[in-house]
Amino acid sequence: MFAQELIVNADKPAIVNRLARMLAVNNINTRAITLFPCDGQKAMHLVTDNHEKAAGICDEQGIPFKESLILALTVGDVPGGLAGILDTFEEEGIIIDYLYTSIAIPGDGAVVLIRPEDFTATQQVVERRGLRYLNRI
After folding, report:
1. How many Å apart are CA 31 and CA 2, to the nearest integer?
2. Which residue from 47, 59, 117, 128 could staple onto 95, CB 3.0 to 4.6 Å apart?
3. Could you tell me the strand order of the sheet in which 110-116 lies?
4. With 80 as the cut, is the pLDDT of residue 137 above it?
């Protein structure tokens, strides 16, 4: 499945905590989050269970953000699970801009969130090669 992520400039010291609190107060669950330096700034990427409401909260709070489409796939909780997906993409010539994952729960697997360069080609590969979309965010 495809999902929307928010990309927030997190250079201000309390922005991560402030946004986490606002999402909680508004009953929005954070499904995935990553924070890392990017081009001299801190970038926070997050996926929630209610993207539109989360984006609205950012607007209301004056928190600048961008939106990006990402692909959510499930991956087995086995050594090489992620490598198998990446091997498939490499074989098919799919270029990945970035990815991040959730922690695996034994027996349930994990989720890998991928920003491919070409969504149409990636969707065709996922369907043709039998990769598994995450059913819901």
Report:
1. 14
2. 117
3. 30-38, 41-48, 2-9, 65-75, 110-116, 96-101
4. no
